[in-house]
Specification:
The complex is a heterodimer. The longest helix of chain A has 43 residues, at 155-197. Chain A has 9 helices and 4 strands. The two termini of chain A are 24 Å apart. By secondary structure, chain A is α+β, with helices and mostly antiparallel strands. Chain A folds into 2 domains: 3-51 and 160-292, no CATH class; 56-153, Alpha-Beta Plaits (2-Layer Sandwich), CATH 3.30.70.3040. By secondary structure, chain B is α/β, with parallel strands linked by helices. Chain B has helices spanning 49-56, 82-86, 104-114, 119-132, 148-161, 178-193, 205-208, 225-237; strands at residues 9-20, 23-34, 38-42, 64-69, 72-73, 89-93, 166-170, 197-201, 214-219, 222-223. In chain B, the strands form 2 sheets. A 6-stranded mixed sheet of chain B has the order 6-7-8-3-9-10, sandwiched between helices. A 4-stranded antiparallel sheet of chain B has the order 2-1-4-5, covered by helices on one side. The two termini of chain B are 21 Å apart. Classes of the chains: A alpha+beta, B alpha/beta. The interface between A and B is medium-sized, with 18 and 22 residues.
Chain lengths: 293, 238
């Protein structure tokens, strides 16, 4: 392919403005939809991962555990190899924290003879140990250790979450595949439609002596350009929509651990590249069909 | 089994038949056309005139028989050689076959772009061709805004710009008014006078009666016996 072919392709795009605009817009809409889904999926995964990282096991200790016994308990938990961090929370600290949390209603606690809360250990888990099954197994092992009265972790939540998380991943994968195939078909058919509308032009070119490369190369360049422009417009539109809407979506409070992000640059470039490739593939098959006749 | 390519014969059709399913469009047709000859191919509708033109530019392939054009045997021609053959031809159609999204200039320039003429030279040659057919003032227009006569002049310009050895015209005046038809005929005569072989499929009697060229009459896909006799006589003479 030479500069002359590129020039001819640009001239053809100019000559077929309406058709090219329609195909670029169709491609950009397809790319926008598939990228919007990807954006949602990335952020939803981030959100679920963030929530999962927040899961801790609280081990409530028996009354009157001596310091050496407490250190021995911490040591035993460390030996499981699944704890990233262990924080001791004394019963006094826990009581103060409770008072602070309930605020104005803390006067209710003043009638108590003694602090009813136990000493506890707050165990943060390592990344690799955050599957619900592992959390459950670890909690069981900690509960069996001496001087541990009870353990607490978000059992119910964890099970529900695990179900939702797996369902999300599976449906996400299936939907992503469907979207991808649909996009591929839309782009390929758009290119094919262009070929079809230009079949008479191709026929005329052949009659006046054009060889297959003369016909083919500008069409390839056009299809790749359409894929590029469609992909770029789709992803840029999504980015604009993202920066315009995301500041309004607050992630404070319970969701403070989570910050929304756009599709990483590498992925965005891959989407544009994919769009160009699909344009090329669509063009290849359509041309093959038309040049056969 | 093929008849030798005779000197000065630019097109030889030997025992050519063309069938579409059970329908025979051409039957056992043998015609020689000499270099720089002007030939009218005529006959009633369905006589096989357009089929003959199609076979000559390889829009169709023969069912039987052979065709040699300027030394190229179409039986042995490869797919890649077909464009080479077509570059020796200028083809004009009744429905013009112009690309509607390209300007008049671009439509004509295509022929030169295909053979790799430099853009600088294209400008001059296309302008000259458009001047010859008298449509240079509409070079920037798109075909849909032109009249039928103007479109056909563009088609003639496209046919002559590459200086082909042969011009094939399939009913070139079929959809034109008498004035435009006479202008197009004059352009074909000009091309012939400048050395091009011109073959015109037509049933325009006014054009045929000018006596400007040889007449090949077809009826139901067969050569008129009178023309056949004349053809044999010509062979014997030469």
């Amino acid at each position: 392919m030479s500069m002359l072919e590129a020039k001819r392709a640009l001239r053809d795009i100019k000559n077929n403005k309406v058709l090219n605009t329609v195909s670029v817009l169709t491609i950009s809409l397809s790319v926008f939809i598939v990228s919007a889904f990807m954006l949602f999926f990335i952020n939803a995964t981030d959100f679920l991962d963030g929530w999962r990282k927040g899961v801790r096991i609280i081990a409530y200790m028996s009354d009157g555990v001596s310091e050496p016994a407490r250190l021995a308990l911490i040591d035993a938990i460390k030996k499981t190899g699944q704890a990233e961090d262990i924080v001791f929370i004394s019963k006094d600290a826990a009581f103060k924290d409770l008072k602070k949390k309930i605020g104005e209603q803390s006067s209710l606690l003043e009638g108590l003879d003694q602090n009813p809360l136990p000493d506890s250990l707050e165990i943060t888990l390592k990344d690799v140990s955050r599957s619900p099954a592992e959390i459950e197994a670890l909690a069981g092992r900690i509960a069996d250790l001496p001087n541990v009265d009870d353990v607490e972790y978000a059992q119910k939540w964890l099970h529900r979450f695990n179900g939702v998380y797996n369902l999300f991943k599976i449906t996400g994968g299936v939907l992503a595949s469907i979207f991808f195939i649909a996009t591929l078909l839309i782009i390929a058919n758009t290119i094919r439609m262009i070929m079809y509308s230009r079949r008479e032009e191709i026929e005329i070119l052949r009659i006046v002596g054009a060889d297959e490369n003369f016909i083919r190369y500008p069409l390839f360049i056009e299809a790749i350009l359409q894929g590029f422009l469609g992909g770029l417009i789709g992803i840029v539109t999504l980015f604009l929509a993202f920066i315009l809407t995301v500041p309004g979506l607050s992630t404070e409070g319970a969701f403070s651990f989570f910050e929304m992000r756009f599709i990483p640059l590498k992925f965005s470039l891959a989407i544009v590249l994919c769009s160009m490739m699909i344009g090329w593939i669509g063009c290849y098959f359509s041309i093959r069909k038309f040049l056969k006749h | 089994m093929f008849v030798m390519h005779k000197e000065n014969t630019i097109i030889r059709m030997f025992r050519v038949s063309k069938r579409y399913g059970k329908m025979e469009a051409l039957h056992d047709l043998t015609v020689d056309i000499r270099n720089n000859e002007f030939v009218f191919v005529t006959g009633p509708s369905g006589a096989g005139k357009s089929t003959m033109i199609k076979l000559l530019y390889m829009g169709e392939t023969v069912s039987e028989g052979s065709i040699i054009i300027d030394g190229m045997n179409m039986d042995r021609i490869t797919q890649r050689q077909i464009p080479m053959l077509r570059r020796k031809l200028g083809v004009i159609f009744q429905d013009f076959k112009l690309i509607p999204t390209k300007t008049v200039f671009q439509n004509v320039a295509l022929v030169l772009e295909i053979v790799g003429v430099r853009p600088k030279d294209i400008q001059g040659r296309v302008t000259e061709a458009l001047m010859r057919v008298g449509i240079d003032d509409r070079a920037g227009e798109l075909p849909p805004v032109l009249s039928g006569g103007e479109k056909q002049r563009v088609a003639v310009a496209r046919a002559i710009v590459g200086e082909p050895k042969i011009i094939l015209a399939d009913e070139p005046t079929g959809s034109l008014d008498p004035d435009s038809a006479s202008h197009i005929f004059q352009l074909l005569r000009d091309a012939h006078e400048s050395g091009t072989t011109v073959i015109v499929a037509t049933h325009d009697q006014q054009m045929i009666n000018t006596g400007h060229g040889r007449v090949v009459r077809l009826a139901k896909g067969r050569l008129n016996p009178e023309d056949e006799t004349r053809s044999i006589a010509q062979e014997m003479d030469s």
